[in-house]
Design brief:
7-stranded mixed beta sheet; Aspartate Aminotransferase, domain 1; Aspartate Aminotransferase, domain 2; alpha/beta; binds pyridoxal-5'-phosphate; single chain; 2 domains; 478 residues
């Protein structure tokens, strides 16, 4: 038996590289990262190619070790190259973010140390770090000191956590679902409807409140609808507003919605996944008045703090309610109970073991200080305003004046179908690849979007985008 163990140990120990190997691997990684970043300003935002990373299958898993250089080469050609370069400043589609470099160092250290950030007992420092980040986000939103929440993988899970907490605190048991009412608009992010369904609320009454000409929830219609619903014997319990919609960056009238939520005793959730961090800018802060009166907020550091993908957050005032929904124990967890100087993430989310997300956010904020983040966010607001003016000068029709850093616009050709023309325009711009834009359809009208949030998108990129638009319109017209 001992021989057998020794023999296995010899092979198993391959999993611990020696110092020289570590150093060679580190060097290969750093070389690749440097190569990637040194050319980030020159490369395309989108690479349209046929194979779409299919070559990844040419290196199947086996018992044999492969070289780091070969594997990095597979990564370069099959993963990094095809389609969207989400790190590029030319990524102006959907909601970008870019991925600031210290996120990578934070992830590296979090992975090397493998800190267990789920429970306070295991890594009190990691849990304090994450709670400190959550409290910082609470404070910029104007939430009280005893509010908390959770660092999630993204905004979708953050919305889900808020909605299941609202469901439980409002006592929406299965028998009550069909009479219970949720108020949203057509402009809400689809992760809200998805969360509603996952939360077992798919049979609740979903009221789509109309929006005004700037795509913001109509407060009067909301109030009237709630009263009508109550008169019908229904049970209004949840209002979801947006602080920055995905389509156009609209901000719902947060303060007036807070009045309505409080007078009708609704859980008031604000999805600020995209727009949340703009609260730090002097341009936007006044427009977010009332956000502090909500019950919960979703905010995405992988958007507005430009972290690499993988970090969202939910902020919740009623931490007991959050914990009642998510806390569970088991006999094998008995040593953990009792040692709780800080609430543990595992009791405030569906996850137990998780990536130590705090490190990838704490490190950049501490390294840079908050100031450059605030400046970058203000810069994006002004870039969007600049784009909005210039795109009209080159003949485009525009949607509402941008409240944040998203704008919609379209080219209306003298003859032919405008929707088809603009769909073709977006397709051609994607094939060109210098910038990447996405589109949306609102009330049957096809709009092109620009979403300026990648930290690498500066004025040069916006000018390039205008140039590409102008060139592609000319090509398409002739
Ligand atoms: C991006 C976004 C989400 C979803 O967040 P993920 O991080 O992609 O899961 C939800 N709501 C809004 C408004 C968003 O912009």
């Amino acid at each position: 038996m001992e021989d057998k163990i020794k023999e296995l140990e010899k092979i198993a120990k391959t999993l611990e590289p020696d110092k020289l190997t570590r150093s060679q691997w580190n060097q290969a990684m750093v070389n690749y990262a440097d190569e990637f970043l040194d050319q980030i300003e020159e490369v395309k935002a989108f690479n349209e190619e046929e194979a779409k990373g299919k070559g990844i299958y040419d290196s199947p898993f086996s018992d044999h070790a492969k070289s780091m250089d070969d594997l990095i080469d597979v990564f370069r050609t099959q993963v990094d190259y095809p389609a969207l370069n989400a790190a590029s400043g030319g990524h102006l589609a959907y909601i970008p973010g870019g991925g600031i470099f210290p996120t990578a160092i934070g992830d590296y250290l979090a992975s090397v140390s493998n800190n267990y950030a789920g429970v306070f007992f295991a890594s009190p420092g990691a849990v304090r770090m994450e709670n400190m980040l959550i409290r910082w986000m609470c404070s910029i939103m104007g939430y009280p000191e005893n509010a908390l929440g959770n660092l999630t993988s993204g905004g979708s899970i953050a919305n889900l956590i808020a909605i299941v907490t609202a469901r439980d605190v409002k006592g929406i048991k299965a028998v009550k679902v069909a009479q219970s009412v949720i108020y949203i608009t057509e402009q809400v992010h689809h992760s809200i409807q998805k969360a509603i369904r996952i939360a077992g609320l798919g049979e609740a009454v979903l009221r789509y409140i109309p929006v005004d000409d700037r795509y913001r929830m109509d407060v009067e219609i909301l109030e009237r609808t709630i009263e009508e619903d109550k008169a019908l014997g229904l049970n209004p319990f949840l209002l979801v507003a947006s602080a920055g919609t995905t389509d156009v960056g609209a901000i719902d009238p947060l303060d007036r919605l807070a009045d309505i939520a409080s007078s009708h005793d609704l859980w008031y959730h604000i999805d600020a996944a995209y727009g949340g961090f703009f609260v730090m800018t002097e341009e936007i802060k006044p427009h977010y008045k009332g956000i502090e009166r909500s019950d919960s907020i979703t905010i995405d550091p992988h958007k507005g703090m430009f972290l690499a993908y993988g970090t969202g957050a939910v902020l919740i005032k009623n931490v007991e309610a959050l914990e009642r929904t998510h806390q569970y124990s088991a006999s094998y967890m008995q040593d953990v109970i009792g040692d709780m100087m800080e609430p543990s993430p595992a009791n405030l989310s569906p996850e137990l073991t998780k990536h130590f997300r705090g490190m990838r956010m704490w490190l950049p904020i501490q390294l840079y200080g908050v100031k450059p983040f605030r400046a970058a966010l203000s810069e994006k607001i002004w870039l969007c305003r600049y784009f909005y003016e210039r795109v009209q000068e080159i003949g485009f029709e525009v949607g509402p004046y941008p409240e944040l850093s998203v704008a919609i616009y379209r080219y209306v050709p003298k003859d032919g179908d405008a929707n088809q023309f603009n769909a073709k325009l977006v397709e051609n711009i994607r094939k060109d690849g210098r910038v990447f834009l996405s589109s949306t359809t609102i009330k049957g009208v096809f709009w092109i979007r620009i979403a300026i949030l990648c930290f690498r998108s500066h004025k040069r990129i916006v000018d390039l985008c205008l140039k590409v638009l102008e060139e592609e319109v000319e090509k398409l017209k002739s």
